Amino acid sequence: MAFRFHKMHGLGNDFVVIDAREGAVEMSNARARAIADRRTGIGCDQLIIVEPSEVADARMRIFNADGGEVEACGNASRCVALLLGDRSTIETLGGTIRGEAGQGGATVDMGHPRFDWDAIPLAYPMDTRAMPVAWEELESPAAVNVGNPHVIFFVPDTDAVDLERLGPIIETDPLFPERINVNVATIVSRDRLRLRVWERGVGLTRACGTGACATAVAAIRAGHVEGPVTVELPGGPLVIDWRAGEAIRMTGPATHVFTAEADMDAFG
Ligand SMILES: N[C@@H](CCC[C@H](N)C(=O)O)C(=O)O
């Protein structure tokens, strides 16, 4: 069966987006992994399926490159908001979010962050502002759930961290029963952070929207910065704003690269 897809990206975090609002597609974890495979499939960090929703304008399903279905993706949210146009509501496993398409990008209201240890989730109770744990030089991280789980380490120099080696060790540590996205951030000034992210189920990416949200929230909560905060990622900047008790707002680019067709049977 042939299907149409859009290749899109947010700051180099790239997606295969299938608009299934008018024709359902059957997706399994193995099929999602095969489509995402850069050597033998179409290739992407995340596979996104846009479906009809009973509670919002559309429902967004998110599959990581390893085939696992997850709750949230900030960069894909901006891409889907751009596809839907104007103002839209998007149902995700992490909650319903609101998009506002702009010129070449979007602003998305990503919902409220959660800080309770069992909402991250962690395996046992601890203070999520500064957790009493360490992996080599990475210590005392914060944890935030912004629809999906994140741990954040504030370090003097993000480039000096061997995230390719430490990322998978932390991602799969038993402290995180649902695994975790690993962020290393440097505070540049009162309104600017630098960030690199090891994404759960993917690895190092050019940008992670939810990582930027979680890191900005953790930095504001700790009093390191004040919103709005510019978060510089390897792929470029995102602007994140948040005040205690309010929803997180993320603004940044979304890029449509091309539209093409492929044969679903080629992916199992
Ligand atoms: N690239 C994303 C995050 C995608 C999901 C993440 N890897 C997870 O497993 O939670 C973003 O832009 O937020």
Automatic annotation (TrEMBL):
<feature type="binding site">
    <location>
        <position position="148"/>
    </location>
    <ligand>
        <name>substrate</name>
    </ligand>
</feature>
<feature type="active site" description="Proton donor">
    <location>
        <position position="73"/>
    </location>
</feature>
<dbReference type="GO" id="GO:0005829">
    <property type="term" value="C:cytosol"/>
</dbReference>
<comment type="subunit">
    <text>Homodimer.</text>
</comment>
<feature type="active site">
    <location>
        <position position="73"/>
    </location>
</feature>
<keyword id="KW-0963">Cytoplasm</keyword>
<feature type="binding site">
    <location>
        <begin position="209"/>
        <end position="210"/>
    </location>
    <ligand>
        <name>substrate</name>
    </ligand>
</feature>
<feature type="binding site">
    <location>
        <begin position="74"/>
        <end position="75"/>
    </location>
    <ligand>
        <name>substrate</name>
    </ligand>
</feature>
<protein>
    <recommendedName>
        <fullName>Diaminopimelate epimerase</fullName>
        <ecNumber>5.1.1.7</ecNumber>
    </recommendedName>
</protein>
<feature type="binding site">
    <location>
        <position position="46"/>
    </location>
    <ligand>
        <name>substrate</name>
    </ligand>
</feature>
<dbReference type="GO" id="GO:0008837">
    <property type="term" value="F:diaminopimelate epimerase activity"/>
</dbReference>
<dbReference type="InterPro" id="IPR018510">
    <property type="entry name" value="DAP_epimerase_AS"/>
</dbReference>
<comment type="pathway">
    <text>Amino-acid biosynthesis; L-lysine biosynthesis via DAP pathway; DL-2,6-diaminopimelate from LL-2,6-diaminopimelate: step 1/1.</text>
</comment>
<keyword id="KW-0028">Amino-acid biosynthesis</keyword>
<feature type="binding site">
    <location>
        <position position="13"/>
    </location>
    <ligand>
        <name>substrate</name>
    </ligand>
</feature>
<comment type="similarity">
    <text>Belongs to the diaminopimelate epimerase family.</text>
</comment>
<feature type="binding site">
    <location>
        <position position="64"/>
    </location>
    <ligand>
        <name>substrate</name>
    </ligand>
</feature>
<keyword id="KW-0413">Isomerase</keyword>
<keyword id="KW-0457">Lysine biosynthesis</keyword>
<feature type="site" description="Could be important to modulate the pK values of the two catalytic cysteine residues">
    <location>
        <position position="199"/>
    </location>
</feature>
<dbReference type="GO" id="GO:0009089">
    <property type="term" value="P:lysine biosynthetic process via diaminopimelate"/>
</dbReference>
<dbReference type="InterPro" id="IPR001653">
    <property type="entry name" value="DAP_epimerase_DapF"/>
</dbReference>
<dbReference type="Pfam" id="PF01678">
    <property type="entry name" value="DAP_epimerase"/>
</dbReference>
<feature type="site" description="Could be important to modulate the pK values of the two catalytic cysteine residues">
    <location>
        <position position="150"/>
    </location>
</feature>
<feature type="binding site">
    <location>
        <position position="181"/>
    </location>
    <ligand>
        <name>substrate</name>
    </ligand>
</feature>
<feature type="binding site">
    <location>
        <begin position="199"/>
        <end position="200"/>
    </location>
    <ligand>
        <name>substrate</name>
    </ligand>
</feature>
<comment type="function">
    <text>Catalyzes the stereoinversion of LL-2,6-diaminopimelate (L,L-DAP) to meso-diaminopimelate (meso-DAP), a precursor of L-lysine and an essential component of the bacterial peptidoglycan.</text>
</comment>
<feature type="active site" description="Proton acceptor">
    <location>
        <position position="208"/>
    </location>
</feature>
